[in-house]
Design the sequence.
């Protein structure tokens, strides 16, 4: 199967994935959203490994929950050396350029990748290496925070091929990289 | 009828209304969009006056076309004093705070307002005075430019109540201010 790098993420209406403090309270703007299926399970079923940055990794580790992933997770970090026991044996720390990292992950046999975390997504976008994005917009203006997209010299065309309302309040847009991008 | 301040605008996928040079070439990412009805006529029929900033006004003036509006236009500017002949007699220059400006426009009998131009939209949002936004996302990453939303201390909740695909490539999301915002 052709390799695919996929994003599944929420942003505020003004494009932030976290507020100025790095918090994600805005995800509960309409808490009913947490009681319905917004496609996360389908997304998880479609991938065979996750790629995230150190900050996302440490955020997940910090949650008072069991390790939530049952698929291999690659953590991109130049500083991490150890993985907490709670993660089991499915976490691999990688460093290097995005193309190098991808080569390693592909050589492990994983081609359908969930790319997560602001900086990692931005790095993949700068290499024009994001194939799909499912973006759920939480319609609140945060006025500042950590943006999903960064300033960049790379201009990539996508196509929105699906859109869906949830609760008549939130919208989820599905994008794929344009064929002639 | 209850007064309504409405936005009808396009942005890039990363939230810019114009590129780093102030240009809007990105609007032609998928030029077929210019051949179909994306709701602009309905929007124009729903409003009874436009409110825009000097920069938007001068941009429209600069186009090599007849004055395109057949409804009153209020231009917010502290520096403009004259209106070119080509605009006819339907352009009024206003200065002052947003609430003052609105009071004047309402006293002229106009309550359904099309709020246009980056800075004016941002100023209205900072006063929590935008009621509806129809945002068409052109799915291209510009990597920089003039953002639709600015850094702000005002956090406003909206509801996305309608979404629509065009050409299976672009998406238009309709927001209204949340009742309990």
Sequence:
């Amino acid at each position: 199967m052709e390799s695919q790098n996929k994003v599944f993420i929420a942003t505020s209406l003004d494009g932030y994935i976290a507020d100025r403090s790095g918090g994600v309270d805005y995800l509960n703007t309409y808490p009913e959203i947490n009681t319905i299926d917004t496609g996360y399970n389908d997304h998880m079923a479609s991938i065979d490994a996750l790629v995230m940055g150190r900050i996302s990794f440490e955020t997940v580790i910090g949650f008072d929950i069991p390790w939530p992933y049952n698929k291999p997770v690659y953590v991109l970090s130049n500083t991490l050396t150890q993985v907490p026991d709670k993660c089991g044996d499915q976490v691999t720390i990688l460093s290097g350029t995005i193309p190098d990292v991808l080569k390693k992950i592909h050589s492990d046999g994983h081609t359908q990748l969930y790319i997560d975390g602001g900086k990692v997504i931005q790095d993949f976008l700068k290499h024009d290496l994001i194939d799909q994005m499912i973006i759920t917009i939480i319609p609140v203006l945060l006025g500042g925070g950590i943006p999903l997209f960064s300033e960049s010299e790379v201009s990539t065309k996508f196509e929105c091929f699906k859109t869906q309302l949830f609760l008549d309040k939130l919208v989820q847009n599905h994008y794929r990289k344009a064929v002639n991008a």
Chain A touches chain B through 37 residues (CB under 8 Å). Residues 60 and 127 of chain A are 26 Å apart (CA to CA). Chain A has one domain: 4-177. The helical segments of chain A are 40-46, 54-62, 98-107, 118-126.
